[in-house]
UniProtKB/TrEMBL annotation:
Residues 44-173 form the Transferrin-binding protein B N-lobe handle domain. Residues 176-335, 435-568 form the Transferrin-binding protein B C-lobe/N-lobe beta-barrel domain. One of its GO terms (cellular component) is cell surface. It is found in: Cell outer membrane; Cell surface. Gene3D superfamilies: 2.40.128.240, 2.40.128.250, 2.40.160.90. It comes from Frederiksenia canicola. Residues 1-18 form the signal peptide. This is Transferrin-binding protein B. Residues 347-430 form the Transferrin-binding protein B C-lobe handle domain. PROSITE patterns: PROKAR_LIPOPROTEIN. It is a lipid-anchor. The keyword Transcription does not apply. SUPFAM superfamilies: OMPA-like.
Length: 572
């Protein structure tokens, strides 16, 4: 049987609110250390840093998401309820945030009619232009091209494909190639609006039974492109040059015409030129139409947005909407990887459930003020007037504790999901080129910890006297880090950490002292003493000039979870 020696996180997260310190302040020694009688120490204070420039909140279709989709527009041509125009407005474009990488709506499309004729990308059973080789991204279309809705007595007469054009990615990137430059190659797809009497004859579409662009929107699968694997270019291709250093992206979208006896020479038609700025692991910009005389592809777009996917930015994907809402396009690309390539970590997003201590990497769109769990976004911006911030989500009542007001580039704390407490840590890493290369530096901060052994024990983040303290010494010359985490109302460290620096991060081991850690110092026997040894620690440096550090460790075997953060100190 386990005994709670302190009100635990697992019961209700609100119990931690009373335990956490609520005063504003820094990690100065005078605020957080418990001194032994007769011992005099020098004092220090947090270094002065420039506040982080917070990401601008995007709205509508420019808001980051795992993906976006639009349903292929089909006009109702019933004489009593005739649709003259079905546009692609911003309300028709829907964000996708599911955590799987399945083709969206595939089952729905298959069931949309009896004897459905279903085509979709990311399959090797259709045209060559439908094949894709991406791992983290799916981009293209899924449609029943044999669909009709002929409920004439009900005022409905529709002929056209039932389906969607979309992109969707998993595992938003947290690192980039250390070279900071990469070329991506891939595909793109599109759908237009549907307008009565429209003539796309000069745009290169197969006429079809539903007159693409008229009865229904014209899609990339209606376009007359090359579909044979004979050495010629296939379908619609994309290519992108990315400079993560200057945070610029440029790209081009092409159509490759069909090659046959009547057209022996293939044409490579540039449809759009793309330029974008990289913000975090996302990008936003514009697409400029190359042929202003092509009825289907003549409109520019100022509504282009996308992101990088895969742990090391292996792939990218995005979308844009023409300024006049006449065309919606999606694109994707993949870069070549070299064996043993080095990468630079940009973001940390860690989640530790305290019921099983199995850490997960969270999705992040590069805005550390937004915590994303199971597709839900939570605001974790800290209140500068309170050292530890307490929030309740307005939508689902989720309670969140966020530390700390003096940390700009790393945030950690706990969040209650489905009545289960979980730790999180999220931060924006220091660029490797800005990391100090020499000198010994002290960092001071706080931590949260949870142990479930013979008893259940926890400690909360705070900066009050006698609160949980995190202290680190970093030698940037020898690339070594040593730290100690001391629990509330304790003098001896709970955990001792030793590790090595690696780029803008560090790895190490955490252990209790040689005598272990007593979960309940008031107990008269040794049954409450735990010995935890050599648990892997992972962390990083955050902000300008490595002004902050943070990290975490967890162990299923030792039943422990910890998150911590600290600020660089200046001697007074």
């Amino acid at each position: 049987m386990k005994y709670a020696v302190k009100t635990t996180l697992a019961v209700v997260i609100s119990s931690m609110l009373a335990a956490c310190g609520g005063t504003k302040g820094s990690f100065g020694v005078d605020d957080v250390e418990v001194e032994k009688p007769g011992v005099t120490k020098g004092s220090s204070k947090d270094i002065s840093t420039t506040p982080r420039v917070k990401a601008e909140e995007a709205e509508g279709i420019m808001r980051p998401a795992l993906g976006y989709e639009v349903k292929i527009p089909v006009r109702n041509r019933h004489p009593k309820n005739k649709d003259v125009h079905v546009s692609l407005n911003t309300e028709s474009i829907v964000a996708l945030n599911q955590n799987n990488n399945d083709v969206p709506h595939l089952d729905e499309v298959k069931k949309s009619s009896d004897n459905a004729v279903v085509i979709y990308t990311h399959t090797n059973t259709g045209k060559a232009s439908a094949e894709r080789n991406t791992e983290y991204v799916k981009s293209g279309y899924v449609a029943n091209i044999g669909w009709t809705d002929r409920r004439f007595r009900e005022g409905i007469f529709k002929v056209g494909p039932y389906g969607y054009v979309y992109y969707h990615g998993t595992n938003p990137s947290t690192a980039v190639p250390a070279t900071l430059k990469a070329t991506y190659q891939g595909t793109w797809d599109f759908v237009t609006d549907a307008k009565d009497g429209r003539n796309f004859d000069g745009s290169g579409f197969n006429p079809g039974i539903y007159r693409p662009g008229d009865f229904a929107g014209a899609s990339s699968f209606d376009d007359r492109v090359h579909n044979q694997k004979d050495g010629n270019k296939i379908g619609h291709t994309s290519e992108f040059d990315v400079d993560f250093g200057t945070k610029k992206l440029s790209g081009k979208l092409y159509k490759h015409t069909e090659v046959n006896n009547n057209n022996p020479e293939q044409a490579h038609l540039l449809r759009y030129t793309i330029s974008a700025d990289i913000v975090g692991n996302r990008f936003k910009g514009k697409a400029i139409a190359n042929d202003k005389n092509n009825e289907a592809f003549k409109q520019d777009s100022n509504y282009l947005e996308g992101g990088f996917y895969g742990p090391n930015s292996e792939e990218l994907a995005g979308k844009f909407l023409a300024n006049d809402y006449s065309l919606f396009a999606v694109f994707a690309g993949k870069r070549a990887k070299t064996e043993g390539e080095k990468v630079e970590k940009q973001y940390d997003a860690v989640y530790i459930p305290l019921d099983n201590f199995k850490a997960n990497d969270l999705n992040t769109f590069g805005n550390i003020d937004k915590l994303i769990i199971d597709g839900k976004e939570y605001d974790i911006a800290t209140n500068k007037d309170t050292f530890v911030s307490y929030k309740t989500d307005k939508k689902d009542g989720t309670k969140i504790v966020i530390c700390c007001s003096n940390l700009d580039y790393v945030k950690f704390g706990n969040i209650g999901v489905n009545n289960q407490a979980n730790y999180f840590l999220q931060g924006e890493r220091t660029a490797t080129k800005e990391m100090p290369t020499s000198g010994e530096v002290n960092y001071k901060g706080t931590w949260e910890g949870y142990i479930s052994d013979s008893a259940v024990w926890s400690t909360s983040a705070g900066n009050q006297n006698g609160g949980s303290r995190a202290e680190f010494e970093v030698d940037f010359g020898s690339k070594k880090i040593a730290g100690k985490l001391t629990a509330e109302e304790r003098i001896n460290p709970t955990f001792i950490i030793h590790g090595s620096l690696d780029g803008n991060g560090f790895n190490g081991k955490a252990s209790t002292g040689k005598d272990g850690f007593n979960l309940d110092p008031a107990a008269t026997n040794s049954s409450r003493i735990v010995h935890i040894q050599n648990v892997d620690v992972k962390g990083g440096f955050f902000g300008k000039d490595a002004s902050e550090l943070g990290g975490s460790f967890h162990s299923e075997a030792s039943k422990v979870g910890v998150v911590f953060g600290a600020k660089r100190q200046a001697n007074e």
